[in-house]
Predict the structure.
Amino acid sequence: MKRLLLVVLLIVGCEAPNNKLHRIPKKERPAVNLPLSLRQHNWIGNRGEGSCVWASTITLLRWQGRYQMADWIRQHYGNGEVPDDWAEKMDRAGIRYAYVTNGDVRFLEWCIRTRRGAAVTVLGGAHCVNLVHLDGTWAALIDNNAPMNPIWIPRKRFIAEWKASYGWALTVVYAPSAPLP
């Protein structure tokens, strides 16, 4: 009798058709799901210019766990920036990075697929924001002038705006955050 009961208990416990553990998890949206505490607000540098490129870079450094580097950048840089000068300063600081200035969308897709995020130029190149999501339909941006909520825009419209804004995108290249389980 005890054997029969044990066999019945083992058989009953084997099936789990409604088990929540077997469900496929939803994809995280945005892909680079930045906590508010990691988002750097734009500030006015010592020449009276905005620091949107540096604010976006700091946000990416924090997202990739490089808090001391982010603090160092915040203390030493500000004001507007152009690609070559930005890269030179990153080289001097010993910070690993990658960037494009040719509007290559594959770079943006790589930044999002690897969950690194990207800083991208918009508004005719006059502003830089963080790209935190890019799929076949949508792009999501976090503007460092108002970083509370992502701004969702159609992918095609974003790509057109970015390319019209010199197609500059950058990221820091460290370990990206792991996806949600």
The chain has a mean pLDDT of 87. Residues 1 and 7 are 10 Å apart (CA to CA). The domain at 39-172 is CATH 3.90.70.10 (Cathepsin B; Chain A). The radius of gyration is 22 Å.
